[in-house]
Write a structure and sequence with these properties.
- The complex is a heterodimer of chains A (about 350) and B (about 250).
- Helices cover about 35% and strands about 25% of the residues of chain A.
- Chain A has about 350 residues and is α/β, with parallel strands linked by helices.
- Chain A folds into two domains: about 200 residues, Peroxisomal Thiolase, Chain A, domain 1; about 140 residues, Thiolase/Chalcone synthase (Peroxisomal Thiolase, Chain A, domain 1, 3-Layer(aba) Sandwich), CATH 3.40.47.10.
- In chain A, the strands form four sheets. Chain A has a five-stranded mixed sheet, sandwiched between helices.
- In chain A, helix 3 packs across helix 4, helix 7 packs across helix 8 and helix 9 crosses helix 10.
- Chain A is globular.
- The two termini of chain A are about 15 Å apart.
- The mean pLDDT of chain A is about 95.
- By secondary structure, chain B is of the alpha/beta class.
- Chain B has two domains: about 180 residues, 2-enoyl-CoA Hydratase, Chain A, domain 1 (Alpha-Beta Complex); about 50 residues.
- In chain B, the strands form two sheets. A six-stranded mixed sheet of chain B has the order 1-2-3-5-7-10, sandwiched between helices. Chain B has a four-stranded mixed sheet with strand order 4-6-8-9.
- In chain B, helix 1 runs parallel beside helix 2, helix 4 crosses helix 5 and helix 8 runs antiparallel to helix 9.
- Chain B is globular and about 75 Å long.
- The N and C termini of chain B lie far apart (about 50 Å).
- The model of chain B has no long low-confidence stretch (mean pLDDT about 95).
- The chains are: A alpha/beta (about 350), B alpha/beta (about 250).
- The interface between A and B is medium-sized, with 14 and 14 residues.
């Protein structure tokens, strides 16, 4: 039965070419607030890829909501093309071979959406089925992978492509508020694409099967992370409540236990943990509540250090590093875990 | 649990007891100890696990019988042993090494991963590996935390046999006693009330304390503390404190 489960056959990632250290971002703009400056200097993030505007003469960058939306489209197009090319070329596929396209993004609202834009510009067939998952935040990669895997299961042999496309610098708001300082010091731009297919007979690829998903939402904290219109700014702004990383960590144990119990597994049977690089605190919290080690989160920590929080595709950057590391063995189990607004913890079980 | 040969396992109330039946550790004992860890993690409702030896020996360390130099030497068995030590070190139970007699080599390593170490006054302790041409496992990592680097160098590189009083003075043993059963009972009582979550979190932070830089440790502590204060044990403490205030 499990041999019919869809597999993640390849992964491709992309970022904008411009890369900044935290010090370089601080130097680029006038940011006198000491609290905000200390957020940049906390040391958990070294570099991020960002599409940053030039500041005005007073050192403040000014982007209107329409400029931010244009950046969202431009970033998605540029990074999306590169990540998709990388994921497909490993399998000798082209966009014309894709039968189902899912694009996940929370960094701008578009109608028509990113799937329509990719089909228009990147050579997908006009009968490619598609879905846009918009506005679900950092956890959305697994909210997307769930229907992608279901579609692949229902259509064996056909290619599904999921693209997590986040131009987080299109969410940036510059002011002296700590909340925006957190956002501006944490999020980076990045895109990850994965090809998913269910083809039981195909043993050409060393690829994990997706065995199942467990979701978990904490309705009491539904406004702990929110992105709302701000009249005072004339644009949307993101806000994170203070204790939310620890609250998410505390709740992460529930879906993980449920996921493992479903398959009769214990924590010690899981060789690989692919946790969303949400930030230092939430990673720490998950270590101590789920009971996993610094080694288990090495890619999560490394992706955070090198890219910042990349939103929905972040865990796929960790997945790419895990596969490149070459330590995964046939039969190994892995857990994917993403956390985000809702507040939400999403989990998936993999087996190589 | 499958039948055990190298160990005798029993449970009495909240206490599980694991008796090492053979003086030297072989791979079968490593496998059986691993199975006991599975049982303690998955099934057992016990809150305490006590490790003991028998017939005047806690353990004399690794059994050389299974080595076959003519077939090549490999590190696999040592890796299994270290994984077992980490399993025991992280068991969701309070772990106690109850030593009566000789403890040497791997036996000392086993004692070092336990939360408490007790011995009768006639017991002796030795890490003899270096004199035999190999290494005392990750005691090279753990011992210094108990005794300081200078003492660890002496104990590991000069391989002296030390008596229980010296081991206690160095901080390897918590207590030297005449009656081991009484001492074990008193130690278990001292650990109570055992809240498994706060015990496991405190032990993990302590084990990590010498290896992690402060900036990491403080983040780890805050995460662990958030977990602890959202558990029923601490919430009960708060409720009781409030009752007594009013």
């Amino acid at each position: 039965m499990l041999s019919n489960r869809p597999r993640i056959l390849s992964v491709g990632t992309a970022n904008p070419p411009e890369r900044y250290t935290q010090e370089e971002v601080l130097a680029k703009y006038r940011m006198p607030n000491k609290m905000v400056r200390s957020l940049f200097k906390s040391g958990h993030i070294r570099t991020r890829h960002l599409m940053l505007p030039e500041p005005d003469e007073d050192g403040i960058p000014r982007e209107s909501q329409s400029q931010l939306l244009a950046k969202h489209r431009k970033g998605a197009m540029m990074m999306g093309k590169e990540a998709i090319d990388k994921a497909l070329s490993q399998l000798d596929l082209t966009t014309a071979d894709i039968d189902y396209l899912a694009v996940i993004s929370s960094t701008g609202f578009m109608l028509p959406g990113l799937t329509a834009m990719f089909i228009k510009h990147l050579g997908f067939r006009i009968d490619c089925s598609r879905v846009d998952i918009v506005g679900m935040g950092c956890n959305a990669g697994l909210n997307g992978l769930n229907p992608v895997a279901a579609w692949a299961s229902a259509n064996p042999g056909k290619n599904a492509l999921m693209v997590c496309c986040e131009t987080n610098s299109a969410l940036y708001v510059y002011d002296e508020e700590i909340g925006n300082g957190v956002v501006n010091s944490l999020f980076g731009d990045g895109c990850a694409a994965v090809v998913v297919r269910a083809d039981p007979m195909d043993e050409r690829y060393f690829a994990p099967r997706i065995l199942g998903f467990v979701s978990h939402i904490i309705p009491d904290t539904w406004d702990a992370m929110h992105y709302n219109w701000r009249d005072s700014h004339g644009k949307f702004a993101f806000n994170l409540a203070r204790d939310v990383p620890y609250v998410l960590g505390t709740h992460a144990e529930t879906p993980v236990t449920k996921l493992l119990n479903t398959f009769g597994l214990k924590r010690r049977h899981i060789s690989h943990w692919l946790v969303h690089s949400g930030g230092k605190k939430v990673i720490d919290a998950i270590k101590y509540t789920v009971g996993i080690t610094e080694h288990d989160v090495r890619h999560t920590v490394g992706v955070l250090r090198d890219y910042g929080n990349l939103g929905s595709g972040s865990f796929l950057f960790s997945y790419e590093r895990l596969m490149q590391e070459g330590k995964v063995r046939r039969g190994d189990y892995g857990v994917m875990m993403t956390m985000g607004p809702g507040s939400t913890v999403e989990t998936a079980l993999l087996r190589w | 649990m499958r039948p055990l040969e190298t160990l005798t396992y029993s449970e009495s109330g909240e206490v599980a007891e694991i008796v090492l039946n053979r003086p030297r550790m072989n791979m079968q004992m490593v496998r059986e100890l691993t199975a006991v860890c599975d049982h303690l993690e998955d099934t057992s409702a016990c809150k305490v696990a006590v490790f003991r030896g028998r017939d005047g020996v806690f353990s004399e360390g690794i059994d050389f019988e299974e080595f076959r130099p003519d077939q090549g030497m490999d590190i696999h068995g040592f890796n299994k042993w270290e994984k077992l030590c980490v399993r025991i070190e992280r068991l969701p139970k309070v772990t106690i090494a109850a030593i009566d007699g000789v403890v040497r080599g791997g036996g000392v390593q086993l004692a070092l991963v336990c939360d408490a170490r007790l011995a009768t006054s006639s017991s002796t302790m030795q890490l003899d590996e270096v004199h035999q041409g190999f290494l005392p496992g990750m005691a090279t990592f753990r011992l210094g935390k108990y005794v300081g680097l200078g003492n660890a160098k002496r104990l590991i590189m000069q391989c002296p046999i030390i008596d229980a009083d010296e081991a206690c003075a160095l901080g390897i043993l918590d207590e030297v006693c005449d009656d081991l059963d009484i001492a074990v009972g008193a130690t278990i009582a001292a650990f109570g009330p055992i809240h498994t979550v706060s015990v496991a979190l405190a032990r993990r932070l302590l084990n990590e304390s010498y290896a992690a830089p402060f900036e990491h440790a403080i983040g780890n502590f805050l995460a662990a503390q958030h977990r602890a204060i959202t558990q029923s044990a601490f919430l009960d403490t708060i409720a009781k404190a409030r009752e007594s205030d009013t």
